[in-house]
User: Fold this.
Amino acid sequence: MRASAFALILALAAAPALAADPPPASAPPGAKLAAWKDLPDWSGVWVGANGSGWDSASMTKGGIAGLPGAREHPPLTPEWEKKYQANIARVAQDRYPDPVSFCGTPSGFPRSMSIPDGYEFVVRPEQTWVLTENGPNVMRIYTDGRKHPGPDDLWATYTGDSVGYWEGQTLVFDTIGLNGDPHTILDRTGLTYSSKAHVLTRLYLTGKDTLTATITIVDPEMLTQAWTVTKHYKRQPPGSRIYDYACTENNRNPITATGQTLTLGTDGKPIDKTVDPGK
Amino acid sequence: MNIRLPLALAGAATLALASGPALAHHSFAMFDREHAVTLVGTIKEFQWTNPHSWIQIEAPDDKGVVKEWSVESQSTGTLSREGWRPGSFKPGDKVSLKIFPMKDGSPGGAFVGAVLANGQTLGRMGP
Assistant:
């Protein structure tokens, strides 16, 4: 099963044109519903341990997304490298708006696996839910043997469509149908992905209170080969809670038409010394 | 170290920090993360809200003129798990706040740490 999933990724990486074909579901033929007793304990509240940069391992400038000079080094196609450079230039001027700063849309997958605040991973035999406090984002991963919808029944969304299966106590799932650039980003270095992105995720415990995700993106528009990053999540103390996150409740950082992030005083007026013309 | 902003400092707290608060909702490029400063003043208002909580503090600038500063912190969920509560800051409290100030000199910044009226520390006051 594992071999077949990776074979899919490798095949897509080697021959990007295949990504235009109807994507196969990752649930292997004959997959059975897992028994409750065989499912791992992922209960509680979790917090990401890797910051908000998508790939801190390849990131320059201290690994903090959003600072001028910070970039990652994925295997980008020439076209996407141009796009990334243009975005990096906007970051350098602090004029690269993060879509979530507008308080209207969620981060979307796979960025939702790399955001601040709390996480919950709710495991049931027929599906797993990844719930993020920030956003919020709600992700449903079907493990009941279903396949991805066919082309006529699949449209791009923030979260995409995820199907998977249990390989022992590792959840393996496959995500397509993502809207991508310009609706969602990977992080504030200016890194984005296309609507052709196909993501394979493996989620498993690497310690009693450490959950690990290896996330492989295959994207024929963005990447010349598959790109894998690893994320870790730490379980918070027993009794921890997840809270409300209403982005429009008190958003004192509106974004101007030029991409400037303002800071408002309690009177609703910018305290910034300068505000771009044409705001 | 040069202080780029005319701020009231307590203990000449200019600190070069490798990391700091991860603001969830928007770019934090407007903050000077290389030069934290400490404000000593009186709480005017505490907004326990999302996507960020805000501390309004009245503190003197380098000329002794009291200004109202807007200090931005994180979401209520994350803060609550770090020991914050809606009553952590009350109007009239005398507190010290360490912040990454706004680069343009505006009276605002990103929260780094605080010493409350009762002596409790939130966030990180040390280097």
